[in-house]
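Table 4 source record.
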Amino acid sequence: MNILIVDDKKELCDILEDFLNELNFYKIDKVYNGLEALKKIEEKKYDLMISDIKMPIMDGIELVKNIKKLNISLHIILISGQSDLIESLQNRNLGKYDFLIKPIDTKKLTEILKSIWVF
């Protein structure tokens, strides 16, 4: 199980990594903007990407659009501190993605992970 965490805030990446490690997910890479994420995704197959929406260089929405262009299949969880932004995105035709509001509810994240994989 390869997981990519994408957020411009290193602290959040570290917190998510620690939480996923507690759930016995250890193949985790972290990057701090969408452009770095896109490069990683082109180099390596990931099963899951957890990405912030608002980031410098390339935001999460642009990242998702680029992943779709590459026809790469992976589960995507988008996160944001703005609940209205998430509501707006859920109504757009971006595809089937899960959304989480910051601060991240670990119970909700665990539910999403269990819906993807049995662990």
